[in-house]
Amino acid sequence: MENSEGVKIESTVVTEEPSISALDIALFVVIITVAYFWYFKRDKQSSSSEKKPYTIQPSSLSSIEQTSNSSFIKKLKSTGRSLVVFYGSQTGTAEEFAGRIAKEGARYKMKGMVADPEECDMADLVEMKEIQKSLAIFCIATYGEGDPTDNAMDFYEWLQNGDADLEGLNYAVFGLGNKTYEHYNEIAIYIDQRLEELGATRVHEIGLGDDDANIEDDFVSWKEKLWESVCSHYGIEETGEESNIRQYKLVDCSEVLPERIFSGEISRLKSYENQRFPFDVKNPYLSKIAVNRELHKSGDRSCMHIEFDIDGSKMRYDTGDHVAVYPKNSSELVDKIGELLNADLDAVFSLLNTDEESSKKHPFPCPCTYRTALTYYLDITSNPRTHIMKELIEYASDPKDQEKLKLMASSTPEGKKEFHEWILRDNRNIVHILEDLPSVKPDLDHLCELLPRLQCRYYSISSSPKVYPKSIHITAVLVNYTTSTNRVNKGVATNLLAQLIPTNDELPQPTIPIYIRRSQFRLPPKSQTPIIMIGPGTGLAPFRGFIQERDYARKEGREIGEMVLYFGCRKKDEDFIYENELQEYVANGTLTKLHLAFSRDQPEKKYVTHLLEQNVDELWNIIGEKSGHLYVCGDARSMAKDVHSIIVKVVMEKGQMTNSQALNYVKKMEQQKRYSADVWS
Hints:
alpha/beta; Rossmann fold; 21 helices; globular; FMN; FMN binding; flavin adenine dinucleotide binding; NADP binding; Riboflavin_synthase-like_b-brl
């Protein structure tokens, strides 16, 4: 946030003739100004390196001493390191993979460090050739609609716009993506190709991880072959030394004053007591829950309409944006870990990086209690990855438990099969593993080091700021399911939200940390542009905001274009959400047409895709003849792909094009933001 000051200048009218003319004063001011800037600019240039302070970025994993923009190179040289692993991460997985690679480097006599490209001057990659047997590895996720992650954006743009000579740079790239999305691993593929174009040497072929399948398996398989290529390229051999070295050491903080102990804050101590604008991923806003009501009319499933109060927060959102919600783990699971490990969850501790030069001093805000770490900072409900299995082996006292962990940690076909069936298929989390392998008793501080960070959850905003400037609405299905081991797994965020029911005005209202994430999912700039919206289930969420905004424009007397909505659910009398609202918009003319598909209200299932195939003329009239916009929101794995195929067929048939021409037409629609998708898998 930029702050500005307004300076009030007062003038006095003088009637007598001044002894010094205005021209003299002007010349004097110019001379003084020039002299001032010349002197201080010279002084700044001569002493900038002395005046720049050492700073710590507690939320980064850059391992960079902030003494200059090129310090990652200086650190490599000063500490005798030859391996740097950069990560582009939105949810923490790429960052985790980068850490595992850097740690394994020691087995190949390559001391490594992990770096955040956002905190580095990436132009200094040209200096990597000055370090003997050096290697740069990039673990890069593709985010959204083929976009770089936030922390890799500057690096991506530097590669696009720059022409640096990277001859002598040795590199390898691993991409993290999802095949259900159109732009699968697009950023990693681009970086891999662009580095080669700039003269760098690819030590190992790019690896492409698919989060829709088994990205852990993809990564482990690629990593094994990576080290084979590294050994061949540099003429080195594996030392055989295990890399199970702790990255953090335990510090007893029992004497720390209570006011210096974190209690769930994301970055700044006491940030929820003393809120400061602007609010973002590291500084969320503690919002009150204004409304929490059930949308389903019957049945055993639940869908919540929730309104977050942002009055007085200075936060602004646009229709189509996302809101991030920071969840916390259930006390039942947290207590279970304490019980299984016979640990005092209220003991205050800190984990301190053993690399004294690293800017990431702690894996999460420290000091805190174990209860706080397990509740707010660590993911205890997802499936642990294979490296955690490996680290748990030493804590198993039963040989059978040891062998099972060794098998799942191995990269053999049998090991991969066991890990897939026992961890992934049976959907075991760390609590279930500790329950089912009772002799495994890891030190709680080590477990806290191993577990990934608990991530915020993103929801499409289902309101318009024109109509609701002081609140943000979301539409969320409660996630509960029974696994093959007869355990009930619960969605972390939705089950927390379900408990946050507003009370009467006399009692404190429930709160939850949130922030707004900008989106490219936008209404056309002109309100008269016709649009088609396809959103079954909670895919309706952003379109509720779209319709509200167009209705607001209509009530202001502005011309609005056709609005056609395709919505589907199981049963009309069970999960037709926002039914009354939608019917009202149809009645007042804001919503031109409402196409409904209730999949289980008749013997043969009926989906929105069936309705699209029945309305070819309407589709072409809007997207072809009237150059309208088309929007899709919902399931990426099947629905969004099916819609895309139908649109291509419509363009072929009604536009009289070949398949290739139709694909190019749809591609151009996407580039012009006339075909937009907000999907998830």
